[in-house]
Amino acid sequence: MKCRHCAAEVRLPFLDLGSAPPSNAYLDAAALNAPETWFPLRVLVCEACWLVQTEDHAGREALFTEDYAYFSSFSSSWLAHAQAYVVAMRERFGLGPASCVAEVAANDGYLLQYVQQAGIPCYGIEPTASTAAAARAKGLEIDERFFGVALARELATAGRQADLTAANNVLAHVPDINDFVAGFALLLKPQGVATFEFPHLLRMVQECQFDTAYHEHYSYLSLTAVQRIFAANGLAVFDVEQLPTHGGSLRVFAQRADTGQQPPSAAVTRLLDEEAGAGLLGPDFYTRFGREPARIAGELQAFLSAQYAAGQRVAAYGAAAKGNTLFNFAGVRPHQVAYVVDRNPAKQGKWLPGSRIPIVDEAHLRADRPDVVLILPWNLRDEVVQQLAYVRDWGGRFAIAVPRLELLA
User: Fold this and answer.
1) In 207-361, where do the E strands start and end?
2) Using an 8 Å Cβ cutoff, are 222 and 280 in contact?
3) Considering only Cβ atoms within 10 Å of each terminal Cβ, which end of the chain, N or C, has fewer?
4) CA dist., res. 27 & res. 32, Å (int)
5) Would you say the C-alpha torsion 98, 99, 105, 107 has a positive or negative sign?
6) CATH superfamily, with its number, for domain 72-287
7) Which letter does DSSP use for residue 41 in this model?
8) pLDDT in tens, 231-266
9) Before 403, cis peptide (omega within 30)?
């Protein structure tokens, strides 16, 4: 396998989860009578540039389909995060009616709605038809295509360069990371700023977050790797913030390497030194992580088996991609987890890929009154516990499986 950034041979193993179906390929009733396509799910490390990457077995069009079911606006905490981002960027970079903001991977308009409300001209780029339609319903302009150099050049030629570009939780999702990043160097105005948010590889390892590995995640990113990728594609990193979102994320600030004038922040050097100190520039850091999934899967299976033997009814909350990785690697089946609740109507009435556990609405949970609710999006545990506080009224308990099996007080 060749590194998708530097083209060096990639051999160092990071994670081997066997095989799994695409994590967002939810099944309808007709699909239950047909076979599913499973792909190997292995993650390797390039020792030349330290980019951690999934082996390619499916193209982006097969993973990000027109009925893509991930809608960002169903998380209240994520909406608050997006709104705070818009306020902070407007104040820091002096954005106003004469500015232009472009978001790549605009999803359902969860962020651009706040840019629009602030009176700042904006548009989004979003290739999945389902979420693009939801964004347009909010009155937003959406270009429904995959982003890269060709689209960026077309937009720049048409006078659509941006003062600020946002790219949240998408950098890990692109198969051609060089083409994607190089597009921002074209889309930005000479003094424009690009921000990228993505889960931090260091936190993934430290918190045993193996369930964030799935086929739609082509890369697992450190600042060390990102800085090298950006520099090779016309962008210069000038600042970085560490965020609590998604179990620990980075917000990287970049500018055009040829014309940008933002002063560099000491935060960049500090984090690069932290990554080096943690071992990200050597193989041991990566090979040690590969043992964690088996421990977590074993804990979950032992817990579910004990609940089943005791006649306890277990349900799950959040039909998230990370839950599908966890269930399929651990071999969880419907007799162990009766159903999973999700607020997104696009997922309700379908079944999880692989495990084939049904997805229901919250009313089903209230009526069924299970003994245990397993929270799959562990990064939203506090939000979910607050939302479902009534579960405790009938003596129900909450649990999480990552980074370790825990019954929540």
Assistant:
1) 219-220, 235-243, 249-256, 314-317, 340-341, 359-360
2) yes
3) C
4) 7
5) negative
6) Vaccinia Virus protein VP39 (3.40.50.150)
7) E
8) 999 999 999 999 999 899 999 999 999 999 999 999
9) yes
Give the N- to C-terminal CA distance of the chain in Å, as an integer.
46
Per the listing, tokens 């050097």 go with 269
Alpha-carbon distance values, 34 to 29, 37, 353, 377, 397 (Å): 10, 10, 12, 28, 36
Could you tell me where in the chain the CATH 3.40.50.150 domains are found? 72-287
Specify the pTM.
0.91
Three-state SS annotation for 314-341? EEEECCCHHHHHHHHHHCCCCCCCCCEE
Residues 6+ apart with CB under 8 A from 239: 252, 253, 262, 264, 265, 267, 268
Main-chain dihedrals φ then ψ at residue 48, nearest 5 degrees = -90, -40
Q: Which band of pLDDT confidence, cut at 50, 70 and 90, is reported for residue 73?
A: confident
Burial 217-228 (b: 16+ CB within 10 A, else e): bbbbbbbbbbbb
Residues 93-115 have pLDDT tens digits of: 999 999 999 999 999 999 999 99
> What confidence tier does 74 reach under pLDDT thresholds 50, 70, 90?
confident
Contacts of 107 (CB under 8 A, 6+ apart): 70, 71, 72, 73, 126, 128, 131, 134, 135
- 188-199 and 101-104 strand pairing: unpaired
Residue with tokens 């292995």: 42
Decide if 228 contacts 49 (C-beta within 8 A): yes
The answer to whether 259 and 92 are in contact (CB under 8 A) is no
Helix (H, G, I), strand (E, B) or coil at 386: helix
Cβ atoms of residues 408 and 399 within 8 Å: yes
Question: What CATH number matches the domain at 292-408, 3.40.50.720, 3.50.50.60, 3.10.20.440, 3.40.50.150?
Answer: 3.40.50.720
